[in-house]
Amino acid sequence: MLIASLIAAAAGYLARRDQATYPSAISRAATAFTAVLLLAAALTTAMGTLTA
């Protein structure tokens, strides 16, 4: 969760620096947060499958 939050904050910051509007920057941050959580879940599932 911490890494996903940090990546989302960085994505929002970079989007805002790229002259994106606040709603657009928040949308990009939310997309990055979701993507990191999905990647973490996929990796956890894969690691569980390999060790079982």
Give an account of the 3D structure.
By secondary structure, the chain is mainly alpha-helical. The chain is built from two helices and no strands. It has one domain. 88% of the residues lie in helices and 0% in strands. Helix 1 packs antiparallel against helix 2. The longest helix is centred in the C-terminal third of the chain and has 30 residues. It is rod-shaped, with a radius of gyration of 14 Å.
In brief, what are we looking at here?
This protein is 88% helix and 0% strand.
Strand percentage:
under 5%
Number of domains: 1
- Relative helix content: over 70%
Order of helices and strands: HH
Q: Which properties best describe this structure?
A:
52 residues; mainly alpha; rod-shaped
Helix and strand topology:
Blueprint: H1 2-17, H2 22-51
Helix pairs in contact: 1-2
